[in-house]
Amino acid sequence: MSVRAIAVTPENPDTFVEIQHEKPEPGQYDLLVEVKAVSINPVDTKVHQGLKKNGLQQPRILGWDASGVVRKVGSAVSNFKEGDEVWYAGDITRPGSNATFQLIDSRITARKPTRLNWAESAAMPLTALTAWEALFEHLKIQEADESKTLLIIGGAGGVGSLAVPFAALRSKVKVIATASRPDSVQWCLDRGADLTVDYHDLKAELAKEGIEQVDYILCLNDTDGHWKAISDVIAPLGHICTIVENSSPLDQSQLKLKSAALHWELMFTRSMFTTPDIAQQGEILRQVAVLVDEGKLTTTLSETLNGLTVENIQAAHDKVLEGHMRGKVVIAF
After folding, report:
1. Do 24 and 101 touch, CB atoms closer than 8 A?
2. Which residues pair with 19 in a beta bridge?
3. Partner of 201 at 20 to 30 A CA spacing, among 134, 180, 285, 293?
4. Residues 24, 3: Cα–Cα separation, whole Å
5. Nearest to 326 by CA among 113, 159, 134
6. Helix (H) and strand (E) counts for the chain?
7. 3-class SS at 2?
8. 7 secondary structure, DSSP code
9. How far is residue 67's CA from residue 152's CA, in Å, rounded to a whole number?
10. Which helix (H) or strand (E) holds 177?
11. Residues 130, 158: Cα–Cα separation, whole Å
């Protein structure tokens, strides 16, 4: 049986096309997964923009968030078997999940939550891993007491929609999320934010709430645009983590005076470099699945498109590019 996929090709990198290729064989740590649903993230649109600008030598299948069924396991895999239902965010160096079948490293994979369907599950892995690694491995907010404050810039987006409840569930810090529209404000409050502020003037908005500085900042959009405000409101000895690359040099002078730390979070680092702790991503997804199945965490799915088609892939990309999504858009096969 061949694999059907939606890809970008060298002949026309601007648009998506349907391709077919032979079903691949798993490497020693791999799972061959029959994909049931995939969600679209900003990384999809950024990679596509790069391919349009720089070109490519062979077809490229995008997609880094999926749920599906294990159909075959590699020789070194002992914790999964054929028929297991899994979720994962994948590896940016390998063919993506906009395909009917995909190879995925078992070490960055976990069994999906039993209480979620395919689409609800596919909405979560990449953003869950990003939020978890940023909050608990870089910022280490779980070690802070209730006197500390966390500012999440972009609280209603894909990562923010999980960062807010993660912080509320697994730390004692006061959670402040940015949101500008009434529906986004309610979305953040429903997920556990203690307070929301408008992102257009962070320093002034926080001051209205009697907050002059915050101990932790998680920046989930426009690092360049928010940098001055971030530098102004971060507390001495505070910690900043961003997931968004900067296009201009970041002025570090305020951070130096405050002895504040800047952390970068890229969810693909572990798989890209095959780090010694690569299996930590599978463990994180396992813990997130437990939170979901215990009813403590809900899916961030906001819209489902049905069918693996060129039209649906393009429509999902367009929605992400608009930059105003609450939660995630998913394509169910």
Report:
1. yes
2. 5
3. 134
4. 9
5. 159
6. 11, 16
7. strand
8. E
9. 27
10. strand 174-178
11. 10
Contact 19, 5 (CB under 8 A): yes
**Residues 46, 322: contact at Cβ < 8 Å?**
no
Count of alpha carbons within 13 Å of 213, Cβ hemisphere only?
12
Which pLDDT tens digit goes with each residue over 227-283? 999 999 999 999 999 999 999 999 999 999 999 999 999 999 999 999 999 999 999
Statement: residue 324 has pLDDT above 80: no
Question: What pairs with residue 76 in β-bridges?
Answer: none
Looking at residue 268, its amino acid is F
Quote the CA–CA distance of 108 and 87 in Å, as a whole number.
9
* CATH homologous superfamily, domain 127-264: NAD(P)-binding Rossmann-like Domain (3.40.50.720)
CA atoms in the 13 A half-sphere facing the CB of 131: 27
Predicted confidence band of residue 327 (pLDDT cuts 50, 70, 90): confident
SS3 state of residue 172? coil
SS3 72: strand
CATH 3.40.630.30 for domain 2-124+269-332 = no
Residues in the chain, total: 333
CB 155 within 8 A of CB 184: yes
The token pair at 263 is 């952390």
Q: Exposed (0-12), middle (13-18) or buried (19+): which is 321, by Cβ within 10 Å?
A: middle
Structure tokens at 113: 């939550």
Provide the residue ranges of all domains of the chain, joining segments of one domain with +: 2-124+269-332, 127-264
CB 123 within 8 A of CB 300: yes
Tokens of 46: 């950024």
Q: What's the CA gap between 176 and 153, in Å, rounded?
A: 9
> Over the stretch 52-88, which tens digit does the pLDDT of each residue have?
988 899 999 999 999 999 999 999 999 999 999 999 9
Average pLDDT of span 99-118: 98
